[in-house]
Amino acid sequence: MQEPTTRKPSNVHELRRDLxxxxxxxxxxxxxxxxxxxxxxxxxxxxxxxxxxxxxHFSRLRASNLIxxxxxxxxxDAEEKRHTAFYIHSxxxxxxxxxxxxLHAHPIYATALAMIEGGRLLPCHQNAMRFxxxxxxxxxxxxxxxDDAEGDRIAAALADKTVLFxxxxxxxxxxxxxxxxxxxxxxxERAAQAQVTAMSTGRxxxxxxxxxxxMCQQQFLRxxxxxxxxxxxxxxxxxxxxxxxxxx
Length: 248
Known about the structure:
Elements: H1 12-29, E1 38-42, E2 48-51, E3 67-70, H2 84-95, E4 101-105, H3 108-115, H4 126-129, E5 135-138, H5 148-158, E6 163-166, E7 170-175, H6 178-199, H7 210-223, H8 227-242
Parallel strand pairs: 5-6
Antiparallel strand pairs: 1-2, 1-4, 2-3, 4-7, 6-7
Helix pairs in contact: 1-6, 2-5, 3-6, 6-8
């Protein structure tokens, strides 16, 4: 049976609305961090993308105040000082055509795993198994990212995976749509929260064998195909009720 595909937005304004909704949703998830962190979304090819302007709180971002930048970090529709977001996002967009939506955040529990020596998301809860063989790890921290070379190293560490744990830093999630990437960000943090909570007991984790975890990951693909879009539709419905300005 052919798996349902996630509908992709058909125009730039719809792309803007989707990315603005992701910023507002991240605030609701409790995963925002001051006026830092950054999301991006490719427009036509992966050389031009939408991004949040530096210094604006996620809760105030709207479809209309997202900026368009190119892979060199030049603002297409607004003056924008090149900062760490460009060096990370541009290199990932260029390296991976499937990475149309790139979300970088510091959610507490996923970041906690990235702070542990040898920290890994383990298949010890079914939410973690949806990410089986989909996670990469960048086990080097060299400070803030201020050059393309470091951005290229991050992109190379991610390779063809959809989740990157960045040591001493945070996580990067990529997807072909905002719906897919945001759904993964939400469930990644839930999986990390369950694991970190279980680890805090001091008891051994009940890790599932790789073959069972791989089977479960395939079950997620078959049974829950399309759930990311449904989840995102509900998020936008909630925002339409209480924060409709996100779409302006």
